[in-house]
Write the C-alpha cells for this entry.
Amino acid sequence: MSEETNKKNAVAEIVQAIKEPGATNAQVVIPAAKEVVLPAAKQIGKGLEDLFFIFFSPLSNKRMEIEAKQKEFIEDVEQRVAQIDPEKITEPNLSITGRAINEAKFHVEDDEIRTMFAKLIAASVNSDYDNATLPAFVEILKQLSPFDVKNLIELYNIDKEGLGNNKVSASIRAYSDPTRGTGVTLINYFIPFKGLISINHQYYSASVENLLRLGIIDITQNYNLEDNTYQNKLKEHQLYLDVLLEFKDNVQEDPNFRHKHIDLINGVWDFTSFGQLFIECCLEEAQ
C-alpha cells in the first residue's frame, strides 16, 4: 500500500471517528465522538420510551432540531478534514480534538460557535497548526456567547482594515469642572461597535470584559490618538451622543448637578499574541 493511500485512509479514519465511534487510529476521540453522535437523550430502548417522548414531551421538536444541528456539525468537520493535504494529517490529540468534540455537543445550536469548534478540530489534525492549536482554545470556546462571537468578528474585521489607530476604545467620564478634576466613569471599554447604543451599552461592556478576561484582546488606556479621524469615530458614535444628551437634560433639570462635563479617556485595543492564534485556529474560516 502506497504512502499516499495510507494518508487518504488516515483522513477517512479521523472523519469516521467523529461520524461513528470505533475507528482504530483515532481512539483518543471515541468517547467524545460518541457523546456527539448518539441522541441527546441517550434513551434505553426505542419502543414505549420513544412513544412517550413523542406524545408527552414538548421537547420532541427540540430534540429533532438538535440532532439536525449535530449532523451539520459532523458534516462540517468531515468537509474540513477532507480538504487537508493527506501529508499534513496528524494523529488526533485527546487534549484538543477529543475535548473539542465532547464540548461541541453543548453548542451545536449556535451556528458561529459550532463552526468555530469544527475549525478547531480540523486545525488540531493539521500539521500546519501544530504550534498554533492550544488546549486552552476549547475552554475559550466554552466561555464565549453568540454575542461575544458577533463582537469578536466585528473586531476581527476592523483589525483586517489595518488603518493606523482605527482600533480605538475609550472610557466615558463625567467631571465637575472642565479641567478634569475628580470624576466618575460612566462607561468603560467603549469600543464603537455598530449596534452599540445607550440602552445596551452594559452588554457590550460585559462582552469586551469577557474578551479581556479570556486574554483574546488587550486595551491600552490614556493613548494619544494622532489622527482626529479616529477620535471622531468615538465622538460621533451614537452612544457618546446619547450620553451627552442625557447629561444635558440632567443639568437643565438640576442646576446643582455636580458632574456637568463629559469627556473621553482615549485608548486602543489590539489582539494579544494568544488571541491572534485563537483567531487563526478558530475564527478565520468561521465566517
